[in-house]
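Forum: Protein Structure Q&A
Topic: Joint prediction for protein chains with partners

I've read a bunch of threads here and the consensus seems to be that you should model interacting components together rather than docking separate models afterwards. I'd like to see that in practice. Below is the full input, 721 residues plus whatever partners are listed. Could one of the regulars post the assembled result?
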Amino acid sequence: MLTQSQYDDYKFVCRLDHIKTFHAAIKSICFSDFGTLQASEEGLLITVEQGKSIQATIFISPSFFAEYHIQDSQSFSIKINVLAECLSLFGLADCGIKMLYKGEGSPLLILLEPHDDEQVSTECAIKTTNVEEPMEYELDSNSSSLNTIFMRGPDMSNIFHELDKAAEEYELTISPLKPHFKIATLGVMQAESSVEVAKSSDMIILFNCHATTVAQYKSQQIRLTNKALQVATKVAIKTDASGLLEMHFMMQSDAQEEMYVRFFITPLLDIS
Amino acid sequence: MKCTLEGSNARVLAKAIQSLSKVGKELFIEADGQGLQMRTINATQSAVGSIRFSRAMFDTFQMPPSGDCYCKIAMKSCLGVFRNMKQVEHCELSVVNNSTKFQVKLRCKLETTKQALLSIVDEQNITSAVPTDQSVNCIRGDFKLFMEISNSFIASEEELTLEAKPDSLSAKNYIEGARVNDKFMRSQLKLKPSEFSHYQVAQEAVITFCIKEFRAFLLFAEALNAEMSIEFDDAGSPFLLKIKKHAEIECILILSTLSPDDVSFSEDYCQREIREADLPSVAQKRKSSTPGPTVQQKRRLAENTTVISDEDASVFQFREHRPPRPSEAPSVQPARLLADGDTVDVVEEEADEEALLLAVSEAAQASQAYPPNSTEVYFFETEEAPPTVLPPEKINDAEEEDESIPQSPEREQRHKLRTIFSRCFQNTYVPREPSPNSQVYAPNSDTED
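Posted by a regular:
Agreed with the consensus. Here's the joint model:
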């Protein structure tokens, strides 16, 4: 796997020429302290969880990277906001990044080189900890009530942006009948509002709905997806009768390479 | 009640609500056979704004069987609904759920529908018994003119004064003869009647009103690209701002104006606005102003030293009889000179001794004419106060004053006070045995005693 002698020491090495998309993705999952990095031959996964109710994962396939070398499967845990801060050391300037990891116990090395200034570079070493296996969420793909919607990113972003921020809960309804896709705000005194999108709308790329699903989610958790939503080109929403909400955000780099951020949000149980 | 509007009219409605939201906290919606009216009243009940949309603005307009409909909803919830109107193609307003909810349905592009259900607080409505067609003075012009007037004053300005004469209109942020501190920047804008499309000032007037509500409606006039007209009588009478567009939209803002009783008049038309004197800041200013060679500064210093004694008295009470001040051309200089003799007298009569001591001792410090002494009170005439030369023509006649006043009497040792209120000087809790003469209602049940 590792061919160059200089990489003998390192179990995991990867390089990106432009960190913009990667940086945006990391910033979008910074809602918890620690994140788990799992590197394998299939790609790099970075997972962040909060409680047992929300989980975000970044999927980056090896083809996204300029260089990608891995020996066995590596997984470790680091502070995700420290990683985000390291990536923003050069501010908005576009940089090339190289990440190196020697193995268990060693820190994650990050080398950043801004493109506009060849004389400067920075090396960061972020301490790693042993990984705690992240929760495995899965939506049963064979479920009779599995509903899938693909939507245009910016339009979805607009809809969410206009939802009343004072609301405590959002109720998501997906149905083969009208209203096809509806988000209602609950918990605001004196005002109840909702947004509906018809399935024939241009902003919906795919609408695959078998049965009506209605579920409530904490608005604060839905808002954690905002950062990912703002940079996503496409959004996929999947849910089923259980109410577990799966949202995929596709982020495209300038070179049209894709990476995905996936959020799982558990619904609020209706105690009535 | 149910009515529908098409996109661009809905946007106008949203702009109306945004303007009204700057005036009051609750929106009163009244619908009758002729159209829909939105009104609001501000917190101090000094401004009532109403915007009326005629039936022609709506695509459909259904009235309830009773013929009219009144509802009051919270402004904040309305604002959220009508915030982003760019994508709206169609709007429907209705009263549902047995008159408890006001429903707004917005149909937007890309087959998106937004819906909001706002609770109707109650069925109150505003009535204002102000006649709206009887003003003697009326000035009409494009909104741009009034915009220019509004932009000439800083955003945090609270009140605007309009001085309307048959041959000129001036907009100011102060009233003639008002006593203000030196940091106050006075602005004035003079306009010629020819700039307005209609200028009728039958009776000269100087009116002062709150600029915040004025600006709120000015915003709406800008959104409509319409002409505005202002109508008024004189100080104390209501000030009306009217906007009319195509006979479809009629707006009226009724503002109360500062009454002439709140300001005192003198023969040469000097008005005064009593302001809470900003004592420390004025005092500081004097401390920093060194006796410099510039004439202007000296004049200011001279004014301050007597003004401060005047102002601290005003903190405590409103006085109606002020010595007449020389009225000056308003655009000239910031500092005003007072007729010193009278102010000194007044101070002696009414000012609180301690405050006066403090204020004037600071004045003494600033002047550097005499060594400061906290218990000495110095009065000095303006001619003598600064050591540098003052241009004689600027100084009014001043009375001869003593240069120093003997030390004020110290507090006498009042021993009687201590014996009368001796209990006050002891510990709060003094457990005492009850006197043997009093009756014991219940024995001490403490087992340890």
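Confidence is low (pLDDT under 50) at residues 264-361, 364-401 of chain B.
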